[in-house]
Design brief:
CATH class of the largest domain: Alpha Beta
Mean pLDDT: 96
Bound molecules: NADP nicotinamide-adenine-dinucleotide phosphate
Number of helices: 6
Radius of gyration: 21 Å
CATH topology of the largest domain: FAD/NAD(P)-binding domain
Number of domains: 2
Strand content: 25-35%
Shape: elongated
CATH superfamily of the largest domain: FAD/NAD(P)-binding domain
Number of strands: 17
Largest sheet: 7 strands, mixed
Length: 303
């Protein structure tokens, strides 16, 4: 049985692993995809203290190397369920069952779908949730971005560099994203802002050939790509019966990252909080690991 099992190998989970291993706890990180989480897709990170400019992938690699050098272990496995067992917890995954005295839940959040018919079938065939990953495939082509937050605005700026035309489709007349980003978007000659507009239909059989939008009246846009940037949703279904979730599905925990269940902490974007940034994910990882390792060592002393 490990001392600390960490579900999720993003920056929060890896930072938790670094702190837990340094505290002398045997530590295993379980990650379903690739280590680093969502930051891996960021071409450039300029707001991580102490590092002026770095790619998200390189930052992730550094934190991973640091955690493993400290003694943490890492495995690829998708966590499907968690339950109390033998005074600790069992994590059920697609690669078997792992046991730990304590848990840190750091599974992050994934892209929120628009909920359109065939959205899933066309994902990877014209529909994308990551402009940084897939934008290069649409060089010289017409594309659309759906959303009105910072991600949609940043995606728009990125795509405007290589695409022929970019439609930004937002359901309101005002944008949630930062004014300075919006100003930059407005300055792009090949970006058209369509406000009070919603995407109602995806067109094309094998791949996306266009979209239908409603902006007072129905209209068809011939685009080969649709980048959906309408926010994120937490990956917490596996823990729903074990810890308390808020109405948005985020795990309830304060700044100390303690969940409602003794022995379980959470860290990063899956936690109920207002600011979700790289450095707050790292901060959560540290707080969760310190809190859990302290309570494990207090338990040991009592035993
Ligand atoms: P967000 O700020 O939650 O914005 C989501 C946008 O999608 C909102 O404009 C929302 O519209 C719209 N939306 C939600 N559901 C929709 C639906 N079903 N149909 C159509 N539109 C829908 O999400 P985000 O842009 O991904 O940003 C998440 C966080 O990351 C934010 O804190 C953001 O500041 C941060 N971030 C920062 C940067 C940066 O600093 N450069 C870059 C990216 C992200 P309404 O406005 O009508 O609700």
């Amino acid at each position: 049985m490990y001392d600390v099992l960490i579900a999720g190998g993003g920056i929060a989970g890896l930072t938790a692993a670094l702190y837990a291993a340094r505290a002398g706890c045997s530590t295993l990180v379980l990650e379903q995809q690739y280590y680093g989480g969502q930051i891996v897709n960021a071409p450039l990170v300029e707001n991580y203290p102490g590092i002026h400019r770095i790619s998200g992938a390189e930052l992730a690699q550094r934190v991973y190397d640091q955690a493993l050098a400290a003694g943490a272990q890492y495995a690829n496995a998708a966590v499907e369920r968690a339950e109390p067992r033998d005074g600790g917890f069992a994590l059920y995954t697609n690669r078997g069952i792992f046991a730990g005295r304590g848990l840190i839940l750091a599974t992050g959040a994934g892209s929120r779908p628009l909920g359109l018919d065939r959205e899933q079938a066309l994902t990877g065939h014209g529909v994308s949730y990551c402009a940084a990953c897939d934008g290069g495939l649409y060089r010289g082509k017409d594309v659309a971005v759906a959303g009105g937050g910072n991600t949609a605005l940043s995606d728009c700026l990125l795509l405007a560099q290589g695409c022929r035309r970019v439609y930004l489709i937002h359901r309101r007349s005002s944008f949630r994203g930062e004014a300075s980003l919006l100003e930059q978007v407005r300055r792009q000659p090949n970006v058209e802002l369509l406000t009070d507009a919603t995407v109602t239909e995806l067109l094309g059989e094998q791949r996306l050939e266009g979209i239908r939008i409603r902006q007072r009246r129905l209209r068809t846009l011939k685009v080969e790509g649709l980048f959906i940037a309408v926010g994120r949703q937490p990956r917490t279904e596996a823990f729903a019966g074990l810890v308390s979730l808020d109405p948005g599905g985020y795990i309830r925990a304060g700044e100390d990252c303690r969940t409602t269940k003794q022995g379980i902490f959470c860290a990063g974007d899956c936690r109920s909080k207002s600011i979700r940034q790289l450095c707050t994910a790292a901060a959560d990882g540290a707080a969760a690991a310190i809190g859990l390792c302290e309570s494990l060592s207090a338990e040991k002393k009592q035993a």
